[in-house]
Amino acid sequence: MTTLARTIDAKDKYTNGHSVRVAEYAREIARRYGKSEKEQQEIYYMGLLHDIGKIGIPDDIINKISWLNDEEYDIIKTHPVIGADILKNISEIPGIEIGARWHHEKYDGSGYPDGLRGKDIPEVAIMIEMIDEDIEYKMRGQ
Description:
With 142 residues, this protein is mainly alpha-helical. Helix content is 57%, strand content 0%. It starts with a helix and ends with a helix.
């Protein structure tokens, strides 16, 4: 899984190593929340593969240096659904697609792809989203 995550990260030159960092931090949050070892490992795997849907996004959009236009941003916003579709049949880790599908949802409902809000967002997705947003923000120099 780590190799697959690194393959995904290699596609996006701005976030090299991002998936491993998200996975490690998300596992630590789960540990501090008192989650079992099994739950911690599952969220680690979800963090590793949360951006797998970027494989379906054109390279020129993923690696664009300037701001994305509305059309490009709409394309980027499809990566959670692409990722969930890729992961949903991994029977060894039931629910692994949750991290991919909802890691861009926001508590106020302004996220994507489904505009979930509050307690409708799965707890593991919230953990990944908090880490994902913070790391990407820092890496993009903002």
